[in-house]
Design brief:
The complex is a heterotrimer. Chain A is mainly alpha-helical. Chain A has one domain: TIM Barrel, CATH 3.20.20.240. In chain A, α11 links the parallel β9 and β10. In chain A, α8 packs parallel to α10, α11 packs across α12 and α17 runs antiparallel to α18. The radius of gyration of chain A is 23 Å and the shape is globular. Chain B has one domain: Rossmann fold (3-Layer(aba) Sandwich). Helices cover about 45% and strands about 20% of the residues of chain B. Chain C has two domains: about 240 residues, Rossmann fold; about 45 residues, no CATH class. A seven-stranded parallel β-sheet of chain C has the order 4-2-5-1-6-7-8, with helices on both faces. Chain C is globular, with a radius of gyration of 21 Å. The N terminus of chain C is likely disordered. Chains in contact: A-B, A-C, B-C.
């Protein structure tokens, strides 16, 4: 594992090694330059997919937002669109992420807190009231419940009379990383991958512009992996998903266009640029050489940068705006398709409306004032960045080789090897923080904790929205056609027990008035539950 | 020998901090029992009873720390472990620290607290030397 | 919203029993003698040993479920290693038993080995007796894991199951001379995976302990073979005293090594032993150590 761990000379960390621990020279010269890289818009797509870069269109500005009930979030989304946001990103609350209805005792205290509660189709329709879903794309950070959330969205489009092939957006739907890093899985690994694969197949056939999965590194980074290690595991997981779809007899070129990725910009600008370039290179190799893709579109590592939320400090929070600008600049130089930057108040709470607007404005400033859109892949040809790109690509290939040659991602996750590798790295990082070699400007400067004596205002949770959400849910259960719901859930169960793709049945159940908890519960009765190995 | 139960109440699955703390406390000589994710206050209290731990540590990053801590402390009291110290860590805004100690938390360690400080707290326990 | 009370009456009642047992086990762990059940059934204590990663805890969880269906109150004693350097330990076996977390009839206690060799902690034998004396019906013991050296459990359990999986071929080679000769039943877990029946054939030819019938193919995940395994672990002991005697001897030797190690805390004795050993006379060092320990 030594290849991509971040141990370095701790005394000089930050000068001699990148964030992922790659050694850096004080000077690079022409003798360090690798052979010129082809492109853009040519294999292996190191330089991106477009000859004109961002000239005709910047990346999609997509800030993450949502809390309370559907109408609270609707107001927030409209406000963001009015202020120049070009894509939506919906934050869902933890009970929705865990497949629980708002009145489930296990959901206690968490309803509407970190995102919006979606208990049923009407909640989704409230979120999108008056928003033209045929014209603006939406991203949902949803995994265990992804099939259900996508079913609501498609059912909403059906009821509005919008053809499914006009819908654009993303469900995260990356269950493998949930077992490793974030814990929002509902079923055992094999069943989870089967459902993720159902979503991919459904999108390929029925909602072709939808990203059926956003294979994610960012959460593994948050759990302690170095940026490069998280990218390596992300690509290993991508291979596992592809194998699962291909096992259904589906050609790589038919479903690869529905795959997307999530890995973030971090504080190290040069490493960030090189990481995005290296990920594009290695994914193109995987798609073409491992899976035999013919179409260029299948080889494109289309990525959303999630932003370095963990870098936000609660002390001197206004400093975070500088971090956000560097984050956005690095992502743009790295050629991402879509971007979120963290918000300055995000160290302790979900952001306020003002903080989300500020983050959007930071993206606008980088896009319209910095000159980053003059030319495609502006760092290309830099001795340093080209060398770093090559080194990172080599590390990614080494990680992928190690994982795939020793059982593959699903085994690494089922027996906790991936978790353990990340936990070890988390401990290394904490030791660097403890000995002062991990520098966070402003930390230790004063008051710990925002919202105390208060330099800035933080989001206040509104318990009233929860009571209203629960009341409406219970009214809905009392007044709906319960026979239709029962029949729809029974059909869902039958599909889950066999090999039938569950997606159309979820769309029907959503239209019949079934709730999130009922649909996930019906699947859970078939698939059982699971506790992932801790892997300390 | 100090026995510690580390638990994550609620639905939040961010466990980097609690896992790192588990290894750091182990290296400081504690016996650490980690319950895993998605614990209810009742499950935490029952585990604390069965394991007869000296300290119960909770980690929450979901914003629901006040309500969940209150429930855990209440359940421990009902289970007869009201005198065992409960410590709380995670994304805890300063305004909530006094609230948590008022509810009965023995110590609050918000994100950014040094592990040195936490180990120091454990070292001062009467069980640390026995 | 109000806090969720301990609303389940069975849980409230179970709490009293749990606290009684929890306190008694802590006494035992501090060196107390514990309690002894007067007459007790001869099939109440089940040990499960085996290499890491074969699903021992999942199998215990499934067997606990069966015991609960019979109305038995169950105790699981799980042992993990203590760090020899710091004495600290990470005890993670509860996670695999999560499905029983709110069952008042299931009590799970994690033990750190605290330097004791043989796969158990020094407190386990007394802990088992104490649990039975306090009216709990069935005790599962999960030793440290690794299998080969987990011999102490044979001396203290009525039945011992060696759990393996189709992936553990290499580990079984290492087990051949040790625990393999002492177990009653071999359970091949994850029996749905390729290689399970090949493994059974291999084990049949290697394992001459108890005849072919006691190798069981199981799957903790889908329940295959659990009834068969459960039945076999409830058969009245067959009087194979030599096996238990061998394990007892081994356990006593383990205890002896702990006692001898403790006697080396005496600096004079320690340096004398080191001097003799350094001079090349190991047997003189051993004689001196035994002598010194006797007087300690």
């Amino acid at each position: 594992m030594a290849v991509w761990t971040s141990r370095g000379d701790i005394d000089t960390f930050g000068v001699t090694h990148t964030e992922s621990g790659i050694a850096v020279e004080p000077l690079y010269t022409a003798s360090d330059a690798p052979a010129p890289v082809p492109g853009p818009a040519a294999f292996p797509f190191t330089r991106g997919f477009r000859e004109d870069g961002y000239r005709t269109r910047p990346w999609t500005f997509r800030q993450y937002a949502g809390h309370g009930g559907g109408s609270d979030t609707n107001g927030l989304l409209k406000y963001m669109v009015e202020n120049g946001q070009s894509g939506l990103s919906i934050a869902l609350d933890l009970p929705t992420q865990m497949g629980l209805d708002s009145d489930d005792p296990r959901a206690n205290y968490e309803v509407g807190r970190l995102g919006v509660a979606i208990d049923r189709l009407a909640d989704m329709e409230a979120v999108y009231d008056g928003i033209p879903i045929e014209r603006i794309s939406s991203s949902f950070t949803i995994n265990g419940t992804a099939p259900v959330i996508l079913a609501y969205y498609v059912a909403m489009a059906d009821r509005r009379g919008i053809p499914r092939d006009q819908l654009a957006g993303t469900v995260q739907n990356d269950l493998l990383k949930e077992f490793v890093a974030r814990g929002a899985y509902l079923y055992p690994p094999a069943a989870s991958v089967r459902l993720a694969t159902d979503v991919i197949e459904f999108c390929m056939r029925s909602v072709p512009k939808w990203n059926a999965i956003s294979i994610s590194a960012a959460h593994m980074r948050s759990a302690g992996a170095t940026p490069v290690m998280s990218d390596g595991f992300m690509l290993s997981n991508a291979i596992a998903y592809c194998e699962s779809v291909i096992a259904r007899g589906i050609d790589i070129d038919d479903f690869a266009p529905n795959l997307s990725f999530l890995t973030s910009s971090y504080k190290d600008v040069f490493e960030t640029v090189a990481r995005f370039r290296a990920c594009r290179t290695v994914w193109a190799e995987i798609a073409r050489d491992r899976f035999g893709a013919q179409k260029e579109r299948s080889m494109m590592f289309r990525v959303h940068s999630g932003g370095d939320i963990d870098a936000m400090t609660s002390e001197e929070p206004i400093n975070n705006v500088a971090r956000m600008a560097l984050n956005a600049f690095a992502g743009a130089c790295g050629g991402v398709q879509s971007m979120q930057v963290p918000c300055y108040d995000e160290a302790y709470e979900i952001p306020t409306e003002a903080a989300i607007l500020n983050a959007l404005r930071v993206q606008h400033i980088v896009a319209y004032e910095s000159g980053v859109r003059y030319t495609a892949d502006p760092f290309a040809g830099s001795y340093f960045v080209e060398d770093l790109t090559e080194k990172i690509a080599a590390q990614l290939r080494a990680i992928i080789e190690e994982v795939t040659s020793t059982g593959g991602s699903i085994e690494w996750i089922s027996d906790g090897r991936m978790q353990a590798a990340i936990s070890q790295e988390a401990r290394v990082w904490e030791e660097r923080v403890a000995d002062g070699s991990e520098i966070r400007v402003g930390l230790g400067s004063g008051q710990r904790g925002m919202g105390g004596d208060g330099e800035i205002t933080v989001h206040e949770f509104d318990p009233g929205a929860v009571d209203l959400q629960i009341k409406r849910l219970q009214e809905h259960r009392a007044t709906r056609d319960s026979q239709a719901v029962t029949a729809a859930l029974a059909a869902l169960t039958t599909a889950a027990e066999g090999d039938t793709n569950v997606m159309e049945l979820l769309v029907e159940a959503a239209k019949a008035g079934a709730t999130t908890g009922e649909m996930c519960g019906a699947l859970g009765d078939v698939f059982g539950d699971f506790d992932a190995p801790v892997g300390i | 020998m100090t026995r510690v139960l580390l638990a994550k109440p609620g639905l939040d699955g961010h466990d980097k901090g609690i896992k790192v703390l588990a290894t750091i406390l182990r290296d400081a000589g504690c016996e650490v029992i980690y319950t895993g994710l998605h614990q209810t206050p009742q499950k935490i209290a029952l585990a604390a009873v069965q394991e007869d731990v000296d300290v119960i540590g909770l980690s929450m990053l979901s914003g629901a720390h006040v309500d969940l801590s209150r429930d855990v402390i209440e359940q421990l009291r009902e289970a007869g472990l009201g005198e065992r110290p409960v410590i709380v860590g995670g994304n805890i805004p300063l305004r909530d620290v006094a609230l948590l100690t008022g509810l009965g938390a023995a110590a609050v360690f918000p994100t950014g607290t040094s592990y040195e400080e936490i180990i120091g707290w454990f070292a001062a326990l009467p069980t640390a030397t026995s | 919203m109000t806090p969720v009370p301990v609303e389940d009456a069975a849980v409230a009642e179970g709490l009293v029993r749990m606290r009684e047992l929890a306190g008694a086990l802590s006494d035992v762990e501090r060196g107390g003698a514990g309690l002894r059940a007067a007459p007790r059934p001869s099939d109440a204590i089940l040990g499960l040993v085996g290499p890491p990663g074969v699903g021992k805890s999942s199998l215990i969880s499934a067997l606990v479920r069966r015991a609960r269906d019979r109305g038995e109150r169950v105790v699981v004693l799980a042992v993990d290693p203590s760090s020899p350097m710091t004495g600290g330990a990470l005890l993670g076996d509860r996670i695999r038993l999560a499905e029983h977390a709110t069952d008042p009839g299931v009590f799970v206690r994690s033990f750190a080995s605290r330097g004791h060799p043989g796969g158990l902690s020094a407190a386990i034998p007394a802990a088992v007796e104490t649990a039975l004396a306090l009216g709990w019906d069935r005790v599962f013991i999960e030793p440290v894991g690794g299998g080969q050296n987990d011999v102490d459990v044979v001396a203290c359990a009525d039945h011992v199951v060696l759990v393996v999986s189709p992936e553990s071929g290499d580990d079984i080679q290492a087990l051949k001379a040790g625990i393999l000769e002492m177990v009653d039943v071999i359970a091949i877990n994850k029996a749905d995976r390729p290689g399970a029946s090949t493994l059974r054939t291999m084990l049949r030819s290697q394992w001459r302990g108890r005849g072919q019938g006691s190798i069981v193919l199981v799957s903790a995940a889908d329940g295959t073979g659990l009834e068969d395994l459960d039945d076999r672990t409830r058969e009245v002991g067959d009087g194979d005293a030599s096996r238990r005697d061998a394990a007892l001897v081994s356990a006593v030797l383990n205890d002896a090594s702990v006692a001898l190690r403790a006697s080396l805390a005496d600096a004079t004795l320690r340096s004398a032993v080191i001097d003799l050993a350094r001079a090349g006379d190991r047997s003189a060092a051993i004689r001196h150590l035994l002598e010194g320990a006797r007087h300690a």
